[in-house]
Amino acid sequence: VGLRDAAMACRDVEVRMEAIEQLGGMWEEAEAVAGAAEAAPVEAIAVLHSRGLSDSSAGVRGAAIEWLGRSGNVGMLSDALDDPAVPNRMRTVALLASLQQPRRLLPALRDAEPRVRLAA
Fold this sequence. Notes:
This is HEAT repeat domain-containing protein. The protein is mostly helical. It contains eight helices and no strands.
């Protein structure tokens, strides 16, 4: 996780996007292995949340949102409702709805962007 976390600081968007995909894959593999240590998936998701959602690239943030949705971590995923990119907020609304978390959608309902309100 440490190297991938460091890659998130790189200026190259493609490198950061690859790091997001690797972190997500690492979490997915650890979840699939019976008896896997809890630290690896938790650490990978924490980096996806902290670095991925704060990235300057909407694409990198979008990839992090997808992985957080796959993880089912509603608390971390709901932080993406504040994403500056409308498509990312819309995707977050859809993921939260698929996880059956209607109370987390209230911030989206207050969003000034009509497309996000419609998605909610």
